[in-house]
Amino acid sequence: MAEAYFPVGPGLGTEENFLSLDDILMSQEKLPGRAESALPRLAVLLGQGAGSAESVPEGSKLEMPLWLAKGLHDSKRRIISVELPKIYKEAWRTVFSADANVVDLHKMGPYYYGFGSQLLNFENPENPEIAQTILQATGGAPVCAVSNSVCPLQTFIARFRRIMDSSQNAYNEDTSALVARLDELERALFQVGQKGLNDFQCWEKGQASQITASSLVQNYGKRKLAEVDG
């Protein structure tokens, strides 16, 4: 049976993938900020008025969804300013450095890594420190803007080993308590570990399906035969 929805992965780094459900949900997360100029007809959208024609006055404090903050942000025109959510501020970065495993990331923000990477779109003097604390979803180690060296992936590395250990030692049992404190990226990694464990257990019991060559390998072999015959 064909799946109704084929999962699409999130975007890389500061980019979003608008076909990804995770990125769509992440873009709804709220950012604190301030209106640096009047915002015409946005009062209703920002919960600051009842009429669609009302404007947000200059200087108003705001709670904006990420997608709107990115749309209004302009480095040349001071339309809005964005503040860091508390979990990315220095006090919490100190907690992560001391023991990242004690933090309930899902409670603090279910898209901690992805949302933190999106914050790097906004000019903030603490961006290098944020990049050191989180893992930017670029497939590689982030580079520290201050020292131009590879930054330590403190939070992700500190939590990754425990996540994978837990996923590899929970066979046929309730895992809800194990994933309750994980953000969505970590939950996806936990599921990958669980799938590997289940597949291995099936293989040990002789229940795994027969291994066959992939279509890529078969097609490569056919091309080689065609070259020889030619």
UniProtKB/TrEMBL annotation:
UniProt domain GINS subunit: residue ranges: 89-203
Source organism superkingdom: Eukaryota
UniProt keywords, alphabetically: DNA replication, Nucleus
Compartment(s) where it occurs, according to its Swiss-Prot or TrEMBL record: Nucleus
GO biological process: mitotic DNA replication initiation
Pfam family of the protein (one): PSF3_N
Keyword Glycosyltransferase: no
InterPro entries named in the record: GINS_A, GINS_bundle-like_dom_sf, GINS_Psf3, GINS_Psf3_sf, PSF3_N
Record's function text: The GINS complex plays an essential role in the initiation of DNA replication. Required for correct functioning of the GINS complex, a complex that plays an essential role in the initiation of DNA replication, and progression of DNA replication forks. GINS complex is a core component of CDC45-MCM-GINS (CMG) helicase, the molecular machine that unwinds template DNA during replication, and around which the replisome is built.
PANTHER family documented for this protein: DNA REPLICATION COMPLEX GINS PROTEIN PSF3 (PTHR22768:SF0)
Name of the protein described by the UniProt record: DNA replication complex GINS protein PSF3
Species the sequence originates in: Climacteris rufus (rufous treecreeper)
Classification lineage: Eukaryota, Metazoa, Chordata, Craniata, Vertebrata
